[in-house]
């Protein structure tokens, strides 16, 4: 049993105060209009955190992690376009959990949520590499939504902003150049052709450029961006899709990408932990951390996308057929192009958004691994969950999804 789990099971089961679907206004929160600083001793036990996108895959883990690992928390605001039912069952202890149904593209909704918050963790976004949303929508949510969050921080005196960026801000690029054990300073030709990485890169830049801006009350805004690689763990929708596909194909999946291509993946619990730690440390180390980017990493092994998935799907009874790709590379490229064409042709009638398209194929075929200690050196980050624990938890979740 992991350290985290012991805590969870041994903890008191007290239901937190929850105001479902409540749109908070600045007046209700008793905002003072002064810059919110964690340095004020009178406020150290009284922090208000806002997590945008708090009902998503990563957001749920961040919410749980904050409740367990931020003893100074007074109020946790969970802002999302779609509120999840698990919010009602949160073990929040004495913390007030405020669920806010809202849209980051609506500046007034963001402002109302930010007013009076000491720390914002901004992870709301459209994670779409399959062509489900238009590039305009992706830009509106990921870039303009981030701009709204920054402006709201400035307006209301919120000093600390942690942004969930992505490794995609760096690559893989469209030329398929490998990024092998790279760190935050490794030179790489970042070429963004797809709306999702474009939007993450633009939003990240906005966040970093906002570092040092004067917020209401006269103090500077302190920002940093975390760049997770591909996240896995409990709640990972694509893993679930692969599992279901495997079951449909008679408990088999067919290898399509060479095993030699390596991906660096990171466990969702560790990503959540890095967010909480970064948020906590931003004030004490603002000179060092302000305006910085950090890859989000842990001790998960480097493997091809498919071999990595088999670490979890294998114990659930699915096997990967073929030591080499069962489909020739040229055919896969053709199929991906065909999918893109079909998506375009069918768009007026229906949404056709399969996993395979030219972009996802390029991603799956390109080695992208991160090896860095920057977060460890700057704010003492160490993964909270070992690889064995991360694997065990993910397997248990995959097994439960079909149970
Ligand atoms: N899943 C992954 O492998 C990676 C994700 N990321 C980033 O992490 C963040 C969270 O991603 P996931 O949890 O995987 O995605 P997700 O789709 O599960 O969560 C995103 C959340 O944002 C909310 N949201 C979307 N549009 C919104 C809007 N207009 N207003 C308010 N809320 C809105 C969604 O309802 C959802 O709950 C994103 O910013 C993503 O770019 C970064 C690297 C890897
Ligand atoms: C059938 C194909 C050949 C295999 C398809 C695999 C793809 C669906 C996934 C391969 C790599 C993934 C992406 C990668 O992990 C990095 C990401 C970072 C993000 O910020 C968002 C998610 C993603 C783009 C992730 C999406 C699925 C893959 C493309």
From TrEMBL:
<dbReference type="Pfam" id="PF01073">
    <property type="entry name" value="3Beta_HSD"/>
</dbReference>
<feature type="region of interest" description="Disordered">
    <location>
        <begin position="1"/>
        <end position="32"/>
    </location>
</feature>
<dbReference type="InterPro" id="IPR036291">
    <property type="entry name" value="NAD(P)-bd_dom_sf"/>
</dbReference>
<feature type="compositionally biased region" description="Polar residues">
    <location>
        <begin position="22"/>
        <end position="32"/>
    </location>
</feature>
<feature type="domain" description="3-beta hydroxysteroid dehydrogenase/isomerase">
    <location>
        <begin position="50"/>
        <end position="320"/>
    </location>
</feature>
<dbReference type="InterPro" id="IPR002225">
    <property type="entry name" value="3Beta_OHSteriod_DH/Estase"/>
</dbReference>
<dbReference type="InterPro" id="IPR050177">
    <property type="entry name" value="Lipid_A_modif_metabolic_enz"/>
</dbReference>
<comment type="similarity">
    <text>Belongs to the 3-beta-HSD family.</text>
</comment>
<protein>
    <submittedName>
        <fullName>3 beta-hydroxysteroid dehydrogenase type 7 isoform X1</fullName>
    </submittedName>
</protein>
<keyword id="KW-0560">Oxidoreductase</keyword>
